[in-house]
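Question: I have long wanted to understand how a fold can be written as tokens. Here is the record:
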Amino acid sequence: MRRPKIHIKRPTKIKRPEKVNQFMNWLNDHSPLSRLDRYIIGKFLGTYFFSIALIISIAVVFDINEHIDKYLSKNAPAADIIMFYVNFIPYYANLFSQLFVFISVIFFTTKLAENSEIIAMMSTGVSFKRLMRPYMISAAVICVLTFVMGAYIIPRGNVERVKFENTYRRRYAVTYTSNVQLEVDTGVIAYLSRYEDNVKTGYDFTLDKFVNKKLVNHLQAAMIQYDTLSEEPNHWIIKNYTERDLKGMREVITSGGRIDSVINMQPQDLLIQKGQQQTLTNPQLAQYIERQKQRGFANIQAFEVEYYQRGASSFAAFILTAIGLSLSAKKRKNGMGISLGVGLLLSFAYIMFQTISATFAIKANFPPMLAVWIPNIVFMFIAVYCYRFAPK
């Protein structure tokens, strides 16, 4: 008995409308990026963001494991801990962006070389210089992204992150300073022997006013306190004061127990907290540096380094991308081991060089702008050297 034949009807392939096909063809013809460009950019950025997610997630786990005892001993609220790590992730992802760029370029470019894709590209007439185009476009995207994040977005979250670190992660927070002197107005010099930030109070306060380099007014007080309840900014309460008004050969002395005064200084101008420069956006940093220079405040090197380093670190994406591509574009018998090892060594060397030069600027009065750009200048020569020996 013959079995009946079963006819399976295959689903018909859905065809795109003709207008859609025409639009896609027009888009491919007029797009500034070729299919090769889009392919490499997708690989680059995909590997970059994947490496950030992988490494930062591991870092968060290790950080929680290391500091969980401090959180429990200081009764840190769970909501504050969660918000801390919400701000922790973008800060450290942006801080070590150069490392992620280097790893991403070397990892996926080595895979392209192993699969002979780069050889196939060059065999069609694509030069190494042309191959760098999508890499540089990707580096430009990362450069703009890291600069905008580091200069305008992350500092707002750093306010809570730094506050959390000072409260729950450090053994003690510095809440006082000594021998503070600054110019609060043109020819007006303020001095405090000691300032305690937890009570917003200064001791042994003097305020001298000079006209044509001659002292015309001298005020001395045992205590000065910032009025946190006043709606008027820069409002201070001066207690147990003596004021000397010098008028030629005459001297008028007045004293009292209390006087309210508006002085152009704020508590954050007197005591610099650890990591305070990380909580300011670029416009705020520039304004703070300019104001402190006008006042004759000397301890602003860390703020200047932070200001210039944000641009220098973002620009490093171009340099490290060129080095990574030049090192990993050649097909090797040993796979990606050598390329990845050399890339990690160079990336850690860049970060260490950057840290050392910033320390020189802060501790040894080295010009901050030059200090943060020296690593880029040195590694730019390394990039040129690697490019010369890259496969053409």
Remarks:
- The longest helix spans residues 128-169.
- The chain has two domains: 31-173+273-392, 176-269.
